[in-house]
TrEMBL record:
Coiled coil: none annotated. This is Alpha-galactosidase. The keyword Signal does not apply. It comes from Candidatus Flavonifractor merdipullorum. It comes from the Bacteria. The active site is at residues 478, 548. It holds the Pfam family Glyco_hydro_36C. PROSITE patterns: ALPHA_GALACTOSIDASE.
Length: 726
């Protein structure tokens, strides 16, 4: 609900549990006055205390009033070069060589339904739900027009923001910094949470108290990256899973990003998030416009857990699209860790035959099925079937898999090219590289220049041909290196700064075309696992391979961090062989199944090479998952422990929306001599109801407040609890 109070000059956005307010002041500056628990009304600008601050200059219209300074006022979209020395929202090289941006209010409109962004992913509403606020700002000296877009989705406590910039002046300008959101907070002592990590240990929560200065997280790798994630949380210093105020912010974007938290000289905080300014320079001719990616914000005054659950619901229901967003995904087996590049059609069928007997529903053939592809040194870009491995192409193999009662899926990496490929020999200029400079390789491959229309058309046509050549119901879309040597032969020198963003737009364009032409196709995103796990990709791929690291104990940490923003329905999680190929750790088959069952669930091994006992355990895992998949994919998720803390076990649970059912997973961590035996306190149940837990009846209040006694478990051993209301 969006309300404009003409008397107070305030605009207030209300969700179910939060309020967000801005105010038009007497000088046309759009002030940010409040974001927090829902209020009935009022003018929160009365909380802004103006006083003369040394070295904080005053705009011309303030006259002799030294208490009015842009350097001390909370703003909806911060200025640059006009007296505000904090982090700017927008930086522009103006036509006259100046760099000042001083935005003032012009008008606003409120309309039903949420806005959409052309060429960019965004949250959406159906059936007229949601509202849109557009606020037009103007730099009256340059003619630069900035429209702030707000979407309100009350049910999820979700407020989205984007920015549309139009050059209304007479000469060309260059945008060098465009933030999608700026959010000013009053003085306090908050904590900042970001998701850091590396390849194989993605999305590790990093929590720190803010100290004076600018704290940033971001990527300059061309993707959102393994190392940082476009998500951050500002929270009370004492906020926990279940209490305290938390403000979460996620960028709906898959390329270079920057998220910053500036703790100012007056202990106020400014959060900004948007495209990373690194090598970003977007030229706008008169009349042209630029649209920034969307940022999504959720406020919770019931701790981090409630914030996460609201993000989960919004992403699953109103960011993901297509028939798979709320449906059980096929339980699949992927041959990568079983065979790597060394397979043929008979080997794939042999894995599928055993898999089908224990209830697996899809066989996915990974890298190595095309071109001259017996290693990662060649073949990318040549999407013709290697008939030495697959006689007759994909169709006969797909038919053999279908005859087993299973679906057939395929791995692709459309954005890449190998030097040893027919495509590169024919079109070396289609890859990012600077003439006269030696190229930089990553995984022995180069990145195709998706800013070029002919490259996008080539990729799309090859994907169409492949998908139509056989009965293919799933695609794993991989991207296995970061961008370097970023230069395009088709762009002039003064537009080379547009490449990183145009590349991401190219990825979205291809995915959107595939989404429209093959609406029933299930696409799983991947970038060396979790290198592009973000809200932007989830608009096109309702699930993403969480990490190339499939070790169960490491996955506990990766899936924990991922859950701060992203739903279990989006988490590609598989049972793999042990010793694990990345960590060399050995864990029980049951434990691997319990951990993988907190995601989309599948397998990454050759079932012909495990024992009969393990194969029977696989059968039990699959049978059980089919009875509780709706809890995992649609239920409310609760973190019951922190794998980054010194805790003897790790635990989590899924609770049905009606609180009638729940599923709890527990894995014992490191064992030490003479250990203590802590109790497991559950969450999210009805305290007035009774529940049957693996055959024994307990009160909901007992399970949540007193806890559940865990059995004695060995190191890395796991247990699951099926819980039903009596």
């Amino acid at each position: 609900m969006i309300r404009f109070d003409e008397r107070l000059n305030t605009i207030t956005l209300h969700t179910r549990s939060s309020s967000y307010q801005m105010k038009l002041d007497s000088n046309g500056v759009l002030l940010h006055t409040y974001y927090g628990p829902r209020l009935r009304g009022g003018d929160l600008s009365t909380l802004i205390q103006k006083e003369d601050r040394g070295f904080s200059p005053n705009p011309y219209e303030a006259g002799t009033d030294r208490t009015y300074s842009l350097d001390t006022l909370p703003q909806e979209y911060s200025s640059n070069g006009a007296g505000d020395f904090r982090t700017p929202s927008l930086e522009v090289d103006c036509a006259d060589g100046s760099h000042i941006v001083d935005l003032r209010y012009v008008r606003h409109t409120i309309r039903e339904g949420k806005y959409a962004l052309e060429g960019l992913p965004a949250f959406y509403t159906e059936g007229g739900e949601g509202q849109t606020l557009e606020v037009e700002l103007l730099d009256r000296y340059t003619g630069l027009e900035v429209t702030l877009l707000y979407g309100v989705m009350e049910e999820y406590d979700l407020i989205t923001r984007s920015v549309r910039i139009r050059n209304g002046g007479q000469g060309a300008v260059q945008l060098t910094r465009v933030m999608s959101v700026c959010l000013d907070f009053p003085a306090g002592s908050p904590d900042l949470i970001t998701l850091g990590g590396a390849y194989g240990r993605e999305r590790e929560p990093v929590r720190m108290p803010l100290t004076q200065g600018v704290h940033t997280a971001g990527s300059v790798r061309g993707t959102s990256s393994h190392q940082q994630n476009p998500f951050m949380v500002l929270c009370d210093h004492d906020a926990t899973e279940d209490s305290g105020c938390c403000w979460g912010m996620a960028l709906v974007y898959s390329g270079n990003f920057l998220a910053s938290a500036e703790y100012t000289q007056f202990h106020e905080t400014r959060l900004t998030m948007g495209i990373n300014p690194y090598r970003f320079a977007w030229r706008l001719e008169p009349g042209e416009q630029f649209v920034a990616p969307e940022a999504a914000m959720i406020f919770s005054d019931h701790g981090l857990g409630q914030m996460s659950r609201q993000f989960h619901k919004a992403i699953r229901c109103n960011l993901c699209r297509g028939p798979w967003k709320n449906s059980r995904r096929p339980i699949l087996i992927n041959n990568w860790e079983a065979t790597f590049f060394h397979f043929n059609a008979d080997k794939i069928v042999s894995i599928a035959e055993t898999a089908g007997k224990v209830g697996i529903e899809m066989m996915v053939m990974d890298d190595g099925w095309f071109g001259k592809r017996d290693s990662d040194f060649s073949g990318l870009g040549d999407w013709n079937v290697n008939e030495k491995k697959l006689p007759g192409g994909l169709a006969p193999l797909a038919q053999r898999i279908n005859d087993l009662g299973m679906k057939f899926g395929l791995w692709v990496e459309p954005e890449m090219v190998s030097e040893d490929s027919d495509l590169y020999r024919a079109h070396p200029d289609w890859a990012f590289q600077v003439p006269g400079r030696p190229m930089t390789r990553g995984r022995s491959q180069l990145v195709l220049d998706l800013t070029r229309q002919e490259v996008r058309e080539y990729i799309l046509e090859n994907l169409r041909t492949t998908l139509k050549s056989a009965h293919i119901e799933y695609v794993k879309w991989d991207m296995n290196r970061s961008l370097t040597d970023v230069w395009s032969a088709r762009l002039p020198a003064n537009r080379q700064g547009e490449i990183y963003h145009r590349y991401v737009l190219g990825v979205y364009e291809i995915l959107e075309a595939i989404h429209r032409e093959f609406p029933d196709l299930l696409i799983e995103g991947c970038s060396g696992g979790g290198g592009r796990f973000d809200c932007g990709m989830l608009h096109y791929t309702p699930q993403i391979w969480c990490s190339d690291n499939t070790d169960a104990m490491d996955r506990l940490r990766i899936q924990y961090g991922t859950s701060f923003c992203y739903p279990c329905a989006a988490v590609g999680a598989h049972v793999s062989a042990t010793p694990n190929c990345m960590t060399h750790r050995t864990t029980p088959m049951h434990t691997r199944g319990v951990v993988a069952a907190a995601g989309t669930f599948g397998y990454e091994l050759d079932l012909n090479e495990i024992t009969d006992e393990e194969l029977e355990e696989v059968r039990r895992q699959i049978t059980h998952f089919k009875t509780c998949w709706d809890l995992v994919l649609r239920g409310d998720y609760y973190r019951l422990s922190n794998p980054f803390a010194e805790e003897p076990f790790q635990a989590w649970m899924h609770v049905s929306p009606d609180k009638d059912r729940a599923l709890v997973g527990v894995v014992m961590d490191k064992i030490h001599a003479n250990p203590c035996r802590p109790r497991l306190r559950l969450k999210g149940l009805d305290p007035q109801a009774d529940y049957r837990v693996n055959g024994t009846v307990y009160g909901g209040d007992q399970l949540m407040y007193a806890g559940l006694a865990l059995p004695v478990l060995d190191e890395y051993e796991a247990v699951q609890y099926d819980i039903e209301k009596v």
